Amino acid sequence: MAAVSGGARNGSNGNGGGGDGNLTEGGESRPERELFQRVRARLRAAVGEDVFNSWFARLELEEVVDDKAHLSVPTRFLCSWIQSNYADKILATFQTENPGIGRLHFTVRVNGQARPRLNPPIEAIIEPEAEPAPAARPQRETTQPRGDALSGSALDPKMTFESFVAGPSNEIALGIAKQVASAAANGTVSFNPVYIHATVGLGKSHLLNAVAWAAGAAEPGRNIVYLTADHFMYHFITAVQRQSAIALKDWLRRVDLLLIDDMQFLQGKSATEFGHTLGTLLTGAKQVVVAGDAPPRDLEMLDERVRSRLSGGLVVPIGGFDLDLRRNIVIRRAEQAQARFGVHFPPAVIDYIARIVISHGRDLDGAVNRLVAANQLTQEPITVTLAERTLADLVRAREARRVRIEDILRIVSRHYKVPRNELLSSRRSRDVVRPRQIAMYLAKSLTSRSLPEIGRRFGGRDHTTVLHSVRKVEQMMKDDADLTQEIELLKRMLEE
Question: Where is it located (predicted)?
Answer without folding.
Answer: Cytoplasm
